[in-house]
Amino acid sequence: MIRAHHTAQKEIPERTIQTAQKGKVVQVSTLPFCFPRLSFTFAYFLTLHHMPSALTTAHYTYVAQHLNQTMLVYELLKSGFLSYDDIRSAYDPETEEYTEIYQWLAFPRFYGDDLDRLAEVGIPVLESDYGDWVGITSFGSHYDLYVYPSLINAIFDMDISYDDIQELGRVMP
After folding, report:
1. Could you tell me the pLDDT band of residue 53, with boundaries at 50, 70 and 90?
2. Least confident stretch, 29-38, 97-106, 122-131, 137-146
3. In Å, what is the CA distance from 166 to each residue of 57, 98, 135, 149?
4. Which of 101, 112, 125, 126 could serve as 135's disulfide partner, Cβ 3.0–4.6 Å?
5. Residues 36-42: contacts with CB within 8 Å, 24+ apart?
6. Could you give the CA distance from residue 64 to residue 66 in angstroms, rounded to a whole number?
7. Alpha carbons 54 and 164: distance in angstroms, whole number
8. Which of 13, 17, 128, 154 has the alpha carbon at shortest distance from 76?
9. How confident is the model at residue 50 (pLDDT cuts 50, 70, 90)?
């Protein structure tokens, strides 16, 4: 509810925004917040409540900020400074082959069990005392197509696709 605080209170019902993709709903509700210097105070503070299955810009931003450190990791592995044995989820037991890793990315926002979640779903992860990297196994496509959906799905336990990311770009500024 939005409430105007002064001599009278006016209530405005909360708004609900429904994205066109798969009927996912994002609710925007407002809470009272005061600005004491205004003679007639009509202020509000927006809070965003989303359903667990709805993709938000926070999810996208969390995985989109990264540094490509492919050459650094390759040189550290080649020199023996880092060990190939420390790479988790690079071996596929079904095919009995190692997964080809085309890029190594460092994600400064990842923390806690984020890397464990990635390794659990088969995304290669290299952890060391000197840094943590995520191995990218797709080549030639934009990150929105394969990389970001797989990272978001693993870390946030969601089921999104490239189409959801495209829709997010049209709905959110």
Report:
1. low
2. 29-38
3. 11, 32, 24, 11
4. 101
5. 40/4, 40/6, 41/4, 41/5, 41/6, 42/4, 42/5, 42/6
6. 6
7. 9
8. 128
9. very low
